[in-house]
Specification:
The protein is about 60% helix and about 5% strand. By secondary structure, the chain is mostly helical. A hairpin with a 2-residue loop joins strand 1 and strand 2. The protein is elongated, with a radius of gyration of 23 Å.
């Protein structure tokens, strides 16, 4: 596609993304600038500065204004240098350590999947469905193929995980659980490594549970309740009474 051939080497930058989405929306730089609140006379110049990365938008409200004008999700225009393979590789390593991502080789192909992480599994499922629709709609005609590709790019740009709608509630619940687990561990003068050994997992995986960056499997929750001699209801914050009690 034409927008991908220009600005070679800047893929993933905020300027590149703004320019790509603007052109796919068939908007001029001036139109986008005016929608973002710039005066008509300077709108064209201001957007050009952002698109060429001569000026980087830092203000959160302004980023939101650009995203709204382009009808895309705010996070889709954040700067991420995909040409930096070292940065990307370490992001993948972090996903393995803290989000339960698994790397496997099947029939000569390397695949990535997530273990016990419903949020990430849901994201991959949504992505798979978007890609499936894109592949089904692909035509041989070059114009139709390009139009379909443009729609696919914009669909991904608008994507927002369903779980984001419940972020505040989830964060509150996660904080309550992780605080309870950490307090019970520290009360018994146990290190993260010691608890990890009792669970039969590595320390980093346990740490990811304790700081809330990885979902806590039910089986692990039950094991922790046994280790800390308390109830799962207490760890979940359903009761303030820190006794084993009767499990329901």
């Amino acid at each position: 596609m034409a927008h991908c051939k220009d600005y070679k080497g800047q893929e993933g930058t905020t300027g590149y993304r703004i320019r790509t989405y603007r052109k796919l929306r068939d908007m001029s730089q001036q139109e986008l600038g005016v929608k973002c609140g710039f005066p008509v006379k300077s709108a064209n110049l201001r957007i050009r500065q952002y698109e060429t990365n001569k000026q980087i938008p830092r203000d959160k409200e302004f980023l939101k204004a650009i995203a709204n004008a382009l009808k895309v999700e705010e996070n889709s225009i954040f700067d991420f240098d995909i040409s930096n393979t070292a940065l990307v590789s370490h992001l993948l390593f972090e996903l393995e350590e803290y989000a339960g991502m698994k790397i496997q080789k099947e029939n000569g192909h390397i695949t990535l999947s997530f273990d016990n992480n419903e949020e990430w599994e849901s994201i991959l499922e949504d992505w798979f469905e978007m890609n499936k629709e894109y592949c089904q709609n692909n035509k041989k005609d070059p114009e139709e193929k390009e139009r379909n590709h443009a729609e696919y790019i914009l669909k991904k740009a608008k994507y927002k995980p369903e779980s984001e709608n419940n972020n505040k509630k989830r964060n509150k619940e996660t904080t309550r659980i992780t605080n309870a687990i950490r307090e019970e561990r520290e009360k018994r003068n146990l290190s993260q490594q010691a608890v990890a050994d009792m669970l039969g997992i590595n320390r980093r995986t346990y740490s990811s549970y304790e700081i809330g960056v990885r979902g806590l499997p039910v089986e692990t929750l039950i094991q922790l309740a046994d280790i800390f001699e308390t109830s799962t209801d207490y760890l979940l914050g359903r009761t303030a009474e820190n006794t084993r009690g009767r499990e329901k």
